[in-house]
Specification:
CATH architecture: 5 Propeller
Shape: globular
Helix content: under 10%
Structural class: mainly beta
Number of strands: 21
Distance between the termini: 11 Å
Order of helices and strands: EEEEEEEEEEEHEEEEEEEHEEEH
Radius of gyration: 18 Å
Bound molecules: beta-D-mannopyranose
Length: 316
């Protein structure tokens, strides 16, 4: 079993980089951000919970991904229950994937329907107008993101269905689609572990899979139920580049966990929840954007080389 001898992920000293007090309109919390690069700029699609308890998504842009955020003055992607009844209780936790083939970004997000949370997809080429694909996975399902390219002609998506089967023990799944709308060939991709493991029972994808020389890099959360509530921690995994259904390896230890006051305390304490990361050009430095305690938006950095080094010593 590999051990982690030094910290792989470094918090930005200016955390939280975004909170509700900075919002141009009333908001309760701003968290679980998706991230992408638009030209040289960093764009985050932040989950904003308003004072009804429901969420929408708002874009914010920064030249350096850290400061000078220009936050859209109103919700960028708001629930549209009139045309999409599955969005009746809001939309949450987006993940953005650039699809070069169609020249658009695909956004996978959680739509909160009367039947429970489900996965919806919308496409955009400017983060102002959105083309909704509608619901693509029935409830209960969340934590979905697309791969940026097709495999043998089909798009691929990771997601996390949940059922009461096996006392609610849930896994990450992989599905395929010819057109981004119809999904099938579903298979279990990464299983939650059992017993005392940090990622026993409940896991889910963080940011979209990242293509590296060694395979598709996965950052995922594991949820530990404790007497004091849930603890969200993060681990790494690697999937085969040409056959993403093949898990090459995963980290035994978690690589990031709630430690600071802004991660420990908030609307839901002891939660770190990344939904996006960016890598500038050929640089080795990953910027990881995460929600802290379901309250604010934070940034941490990590070396891609360090992540792959840790995974080299681990098994599937
Ligand atoms: C998960 C998601 C996240 C949230 C987390 C902790 O199920 O709903 O949006 O951050 O719980 O509350």
């Amino acid at each position: 079993m590999q051990t982690q001898t030094h910290r792989l992920i470094h918090r930005h000293p200016g955390n939280p980089i975004l909170d509700a007090s900075m919002w141009p309109y009333p908001a309760n919390s701003v968290f679980n951000p998706a991230a992408t690069l638009v030209g040289e700029e960093t764009l985050l699609l932040v989950r904003v919970e308003d004072r009804t308890g429901m969420s929408h998504l708002t874009a914010t842009r920064s030249p350096d991904g850290v400061t000078d955020w220009r936050i859209d003055p109103q919700p960028t992607l708001a629930p549209d229950p009139k045309h999409h009844p599955e969005e009746v209780w809001g939309i949450e936790d987006a993940r953005i994937t650039r699809l070069e083939e169609i020249g658009e970004w695909a956004i996978a997000y959680t739509a909160y329907s009367k039947g429970g949370p489900l996965v919806s997809i919308a496409c955009t080429d400017d983060f102002r107008k959105f083309r909704r694909m509608g619901p693509v996975m029935p409830p209960e399902n969340k934590d979905a993101a697309l791969f940026p390219r097709r495999f043998k002609g089909r798009w691929a998506m990771i997601h996390r269905p949940a059922t009461a089967f096996m006392q609610g023990r849930v896994h990450m799944w992989l599905s395929f689609s010819p057109d981004l709308r119809h999904w099938g060939d579903h298979k279990i991709l990464i299983e939650s572990r059992d017993g005392a493991w940090w990622d026993a029972n409940r896991i889910g994808l963080g940011p979209p899979p990242l293509e590296t020389e060694e395979g598709w890099l996965i950052l995922y959360h594991g949820v530990r139920q404790t007497a004091a509530g849930c603890l969200y921690r993060l681990g790494l995994a690697l999937l085969d580049l040409e056959d993403p259904a093949r898990l090459i390896c995963r980290s035994d230890s978690w690589v990031f966990a709630p430690e600071t006051h802004y991660e420990r305390t908030g609307d839901v304490g002891s939660v770190v929840f990344p939904c996006g990361w960016t890598l500038h050009g050929k640089s080795d430095l990953l910027s990881i954007y995460y929600g802290a305690a379901d309250t604010s938006t934070c940034l941490a950095t990590a070396s891609l080389k360090d992540f792959l080094g840790l995974l080299k010593g681990s098994s599937a």
